[in-house]
Amino acid sequence: MKRSSKAVRIAANLGGAAVFLGSLAFLLPSLLGYDRYVITSGSMTGTFDVGSIVFDKPVAVADLEVGDVITYLPPESSGVPHLVTHRIAKIHRPARGPMLYRTKGDANPQVDPWEFQLERPVQAKVQFGVPYAGYVFLALADRHIRMLVVGIPAALIALMSLAEVIKALGAERPSARPRPTFTTN
Fold it and tell me: Both 120 and 44 in a single domain?
């Protein structure tokens, strides 16, 4: 019984350490000013494969150059309703009006069919990526997997707590007292 109890404590400590490190890895980039995005298509394959996480930092739009990889929302007319991470292929600086941008996925043969403006003074620019780490976030987006990730550890903690309560109640039980004996003279 002692060996299994020690193994359970070691497993619980390792699980706690894994949760702590995972939480730290999840929170630390935000604390350092990075936004993170999961690559969900193959348009940047070779640079950032599907399932990679890219870490972006806001930079001044005026500092963007051809060749920079940015994460942006394409114009509504493009029909693309989600963020895209592509490389700037062309910056058109008209005599009047805002700059216009064209992007291209590294694995795509053609530039994106839309031209767009960047409305805000800063833009998310990719600083680095971590291959395949995004699959964790993609998995956690599924409700059933999230329930398992939360439910299994919660159930284990509840069972361990219940075992401790039962053990403590067993230790507090009064031992059988000997019956007093009466003697007569």
Answer: yes
